[in-house]
Sequence to fold (253 residues):
Amino acid sequence: MSLIEDDAKYVWHPFTQIQTEPCPLLISKAKDATLYTADGKQYLDCNSSWWVNVHGHGNEHIAQAIQTQFAAIDHVIFAGATHEKGIELAKRIVEKLNCDLQKVFFSDNGSTAVEVAIKMCMQFWHNQGINKSRVLALEGAYHGDTFGAMSVGERDYFNAPFEPFFFNVDFLEFPTEANEQQLLAQAKTLFESGEFISLIVEPLIQGSAGMRFYSIEFLEELVKLAKANNVLVIFDEIMTAWGRTGTLFAFEH
Fold:
């Protein structure tokens, strides 16, 4: 049996309709931004293998660092224990942020990072005895595929079976030059209700929605409205961070 036949028999691929999807590309190696298939074809990895491969494939410096670290500590529970490299990484990230964000919570994927951010906002208000339950997001957003992340993302056929289990979220239309002022007025009215725990956005660019850009000025005004009404702000930078927009993080714009 060939590898592709074994794949069809044993593997369940994400975002894939098993009965109708054509055979996947069989990747045999990867280097820098290029993927090589078993039959000798080359493809540019234009989405960084779902946003995460910022430094390219087969980076020798990273490979050596992983090998060295694995020989010392491969993994240790981070609840009740810590280690030098975790501390060093958190410190360096905070220094690079250069703002009032002073703590790093490590998560292993984008969906759970969003979940943790939402839970932090929920718990912030819960700990103060303030009853808030609503979140504001943008139409067309993609924040992940766990339940909280789906709740704040675009509602479509991918997540329709799960929608009865989503929590309460309000959505603004995607901002354009024509509707920005209307959306800001709508956001102001919503925030002034005092019911919102947080605003969550992909700053400046919606990736999965088709690389849709919106203005820095709109985002600045939206964040000002949120802060003026004690609404916490989440920037989902899974796709935009680490230099992809010209600054280390998109929010720096």
